[in-house]
């Protein structure tokens, strides 16, 4: 009884950003200080250096840093000229940003179901969704697979469907940057990729940030133009409709320091996830890695029988263990998106009633993990 009271008094962080800050604090303070001294707060040299290093890390020819992962997605749709009458295919089980950018350009999001084991896009559902879009008079243009919770999507299945239907493949790796599919890092798959550097992401800055990746040389100047108000030869010539989506120099400086330790942090996350799986597999449905896929474990998400999730969350809260639910409502049931088309999406609907995420980060030591596991097992006994 005494230990239970003590544990409730010392809550565990869901994502321990402070632990990484303690490790990198002096380095980041120097990097930020250098930007403050230079006063080059927009388009400073750190941005170009970061783009070069991000592209090398991902195995892509080009990286274009930007203000957020959402902007990264929008920049690509704008650069490709996606417009009214076009269909863009998005998973129903994802964060809203994946689909949010589609109506921005006047196009129609068409929702696709996911696989029950990996939570990533189901290629068979994509095939059916293309037929749904065509039946509604839409022109299929782009598919946005999501590397959900950190695991690379099944690109062996998705890419052939996209090719058969003439779809551009925009990989949303906001949660999966650093993961791989068949040895290829996310960011180097499909026609282009978008990622986020939101602070809670495996590679996160101290505010909003993102990046686009592509091997398409012709796309690069268009992306840079879109990022800066559609500028042409200079900032006061506007050759297309654009946006203001630059990454601040300070955020680039922070990300350079974090990228330097990112490989080690990925390995640490993978060790935490493997241990969770071993210790929880007999009491919950634990995450599954597809053959050929790796994950950076942006989230560690288990499934429970319907009706058990809220009781588990309350019990863990009493033990000082935070949880989160990603996501309670599938995209096609969200009020803002309910009018958009989609095939039957039973897996997405089931997952929204069953998933719950446990604390996950690169600094989760075994003693803290044991405390989390013990609380989960106690609650589910």
Automatic annotation (TrEMBL):
The keyword Plastid does not apply. PANTHER family: TRANSAMINASE, UDP-2-ACETAMIDO-2-DEOXY-3-OXO-D-GLUCURONATE AMINOTRANSFERASE. InterPro entries: DegT/StrS_aminotransferase, PyrdxlP-dep_Trfase, PyrdxlP-dep_Trfase_major, PyrdxlP-dep_Trfase_small. The keyword Transferase does not apply. One of its GO terms (molecular function) is transaminase activity. The active site is at 201 (proton acceptor). Keywords: Pyridoxal phosphate. It comes from the Bacteria. This is dTDP-4-amino-4,6-dideoxygalactose transaminase. The lineage of its organism: Bacteria, Pseudomonadati, Pseudomonadota, Alphaproteobacteria, Hyphomicrobiales. One of its GO terms (biological process) is polysaccharide biosynthetic process. Belongs to the DegT/DnrJ/EryC1 family. The modification N6-(pyridoxal phosphate)lysine is found at residue 201.
């Amino acid at each position: 009884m005494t230990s239970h009271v003590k544990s409730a008094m010392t809550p565990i962080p869901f994502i321990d950003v402070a632990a990484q800050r303690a490790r990198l604090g002096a380095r980041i303070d120097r990097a930020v200080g250098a930007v403050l001294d230079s006063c080059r707060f927009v388009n400073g040299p750190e941005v170009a250096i970061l783009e070069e290093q991000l592209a090398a890390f991902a195995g892509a020819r080009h990286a274009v840093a930007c203000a957020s992962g959402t902007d990264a997605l929008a920049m690509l749709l704008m650069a490709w000229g996606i417009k009214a009458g076009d269909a863009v295919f998005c998973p129903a089980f994802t964060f809203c940003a994946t689909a949010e950018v589609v109506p921005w350009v006047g196009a129609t999001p068409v929702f696709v179901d996911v696989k029950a084991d990996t939570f990533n896009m189901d290629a068979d559902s994509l095939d059916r969704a293309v037929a749904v879009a065509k039946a509604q008079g839409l022109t299929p243009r782009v598919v946005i697979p999501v590397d959900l919770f950190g695991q690379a999507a099944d690109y062996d299945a998705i890419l052939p469907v996209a090719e058969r239907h003439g779809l551009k493949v925009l990989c949303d790796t906001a949660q999966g940057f650093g993961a791989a599919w068949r040895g290829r890092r996310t960011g180097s798959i499909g026609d282009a990729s978008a990622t986020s550097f939101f602070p809670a992401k495996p590679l996160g800055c101290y505010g909003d940030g993102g990046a686009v990746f592509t091997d398409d040389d012709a796309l690069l100047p268009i992306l840079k133009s879109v990022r800066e108000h559609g500028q042409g030869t200079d900032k006061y010539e506007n050759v297309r409709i654009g946006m203001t989506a630059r990454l601040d120099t300070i955020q680039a400086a922070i990300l350079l320091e974090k990228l330097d330790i990112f490989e080690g942090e990925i390995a640490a996350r993978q060790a935490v996830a493997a241990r969770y799986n071993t210790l929880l597999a007999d009491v919950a449905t634990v995450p599954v890695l597809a053959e050929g896929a790796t994950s950076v474990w942006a989230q560690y998400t288990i499934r429970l029988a319907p009706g058990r999730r809220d009781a588990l969350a309350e019990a863990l809260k009493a033990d000082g263990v935070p949880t989160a639910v990603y996501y309670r409502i599938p995209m096609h049931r969200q009020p803002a998106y309910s009018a958009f088309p989609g095939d039957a999406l039973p897996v997405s609907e089931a997952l929204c009633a069953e998933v719950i995420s446990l604390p996950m980060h690169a600094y989760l030591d075994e003693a803290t993990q044991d405390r989390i596991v013990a609380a989960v097992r106690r609650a589910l006994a």
